[in-house]
């Protein structure tokens, strides 16, 4: 019997790992199944652009994995039982249970903030394709009224900044306000903060700083200082969270539900489980937790791939880089900021702004998409056989 590898999630981390493992492991020894809630690869990096009205490429996962031998199961993961090595899923046929010998958990994250009154009922977000499309429909309706609808973005992290600037540029008929809990762009260098502020002024974005939103209503938000801000569409970008599936299954997790892994992305509580992307609590080479980002998905995905390959084939596990080098922020189509950080993840004094930064960010987005569809670029083409110790039938007999 072949060793069963199940990959949960086909985002930037999961899709890359699945494709790479399929091309580096012998199909005689291993079978790989990817479980994903949607049939397409979603460019999460560009969902704010989708919401603003741009058409975003969404390759079919069946095409991405064509010729690799990877089995695609379009379904939603409902539970994980790492002690029994099974995953429960719900699909168009009702769902069922998938058994595994090795599991890669890469289900990613979703918008946080549903503990704030009214966010779930009245808020919009760009953390998933359905929610980005919902926001797009709302913005279309506001544009169609011709009365200058009011859009309020809560949160001035990277997602909030990119969403506010994209909407303001793409839909100049709408009034856009960005609410920051502290100073706008507080984590950026002084020069980058100035560049960001000038971009907001150029795009007509109203910035409200040092303000905490305590509740979202149908027609606006209520702030901690007692102020009320009117809005026809409130977009919540104040952080991300993960589902409780890993915690409920008994995996060791942090207080926020991230799977605790070792340097190789292996679960510290269940050795047959690996995690990558936003689902993993991974310590970077600087000694600090890696942030939730596409870059971290790439780094943790590559490390998980090497760890799984090494473990199954009996080779030494290679340690790949786990870096956090900086932030890449788009400010509409023709402007941006590249902000390098130091070893302690603090913004350096220099930054790159303007069209050059926008072109570099666009190239990064393109390369991220290309890497998903071409996971073997620069890799040896040899497919490795599994070591005898990881023969699937033997592993199951020991379970």
TrEMBL record:
Q: Which UniProt keywords apply?
A: FAD, Flavoprotein, Oxidoreductase
For molecular function, the Gene Ontology terms on record are: NAD(P)H dehydrogenase (quinone) activity
Instruction: Give GO terms for biological process.
Output: aerobic electron transport chain
Q: Which Gene3D superfamilies match?
A: 3.50.50.100
Instruction: Note the superkingdom of the native organism.
Output: Bacteria
Reported cofactor(s): FAD
SUPFAM superfamilies from the UniProt entry = FAD/NAD(P)-binding domain (SSF51905)
Q: Where is the FAD/NAD(P)-binding domain?
A: 4-288
Family per UniProt? Belongs to the NADH dehydrogenase family.
Protein name stated in the entry: Oxidoreductase
């Amino acid at each position: 019997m072949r060793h069963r590898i199940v990959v949960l999630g086909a985002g930037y981390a999961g899709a890359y790992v699945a494709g790479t493992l399929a091309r580096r492991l012998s199909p005689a020894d291993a079978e790989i199944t990817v479980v994903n809630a949607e049939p397409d690869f979603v460019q999460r990096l560009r969902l704010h652009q989708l919401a603003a009205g741009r058409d975003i490429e969404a390759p079919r996962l069946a095409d991405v994995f064509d010729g690799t031998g990877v089995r695609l199961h379009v379904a939603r993961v409902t539970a994980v039982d790492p002690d029994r090595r099974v995953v429960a899923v719900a699909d168009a046929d009702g769902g069922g249970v998938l058994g595994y010998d090795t599991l890669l958990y890469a289900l990613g994250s979703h918008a946080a903030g549903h503990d704030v009154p009214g966010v779930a009922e009245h808020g919009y977000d760009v953390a998933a394709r359905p929610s980005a499309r919902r926001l797009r429909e709302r913005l279309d309706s506001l544009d169609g009224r011709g009365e200058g609808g009011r859009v309020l973005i809560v949160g001035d992290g990277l997602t909030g900044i990119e969403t506010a600037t994209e909407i303001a540029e793409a839909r100049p008929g709408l009034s856009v306000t960005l609410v920051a809990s502290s100073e706008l762009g507080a984590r950026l260098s002084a020069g980058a903060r100035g560049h960001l502020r000038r971009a907001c002024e150029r795009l007509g974005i109203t910035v409200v700083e040092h303000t905490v939103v305590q509740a979202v209503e149908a027609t606006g938000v209520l702030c901690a200082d007692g102020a009320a801000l009117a809005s026809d569409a409130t977009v919540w970008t104040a952080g991300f969270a993960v589902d409780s599936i890993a915690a409920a299954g008994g995996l060791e997790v942090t207080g926020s539900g991230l799977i605790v892994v070792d340097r190789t992305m292996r679960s510290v509580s269940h050795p047959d489980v690996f995690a990558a992307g936003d689902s993993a609590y991974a310590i970077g080479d600087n000694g600090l937790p890696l942030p939730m980002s596409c870059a971290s998905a790439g780094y943790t995905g590559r490390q998980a791939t090497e760890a799984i390959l090494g473990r199954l084939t009996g080779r030494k596990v290679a340690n790949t880089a786990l870096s956090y080098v900086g932030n890449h922020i788009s400010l509409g189509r023709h402007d941006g900021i590249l902000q390098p950080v130091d070893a302690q993840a603090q913004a350096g004094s220099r930054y790159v702004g303007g069209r050059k930064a926008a072109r570099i960010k666009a190239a990064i987005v393109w390369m991220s998409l290309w890497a998903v569809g071409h996971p073997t670029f620069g890799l040896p083409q040899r497919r490795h056989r599994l070591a005898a110790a990881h023969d699937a039938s033997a592993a199951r007999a020991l379970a």
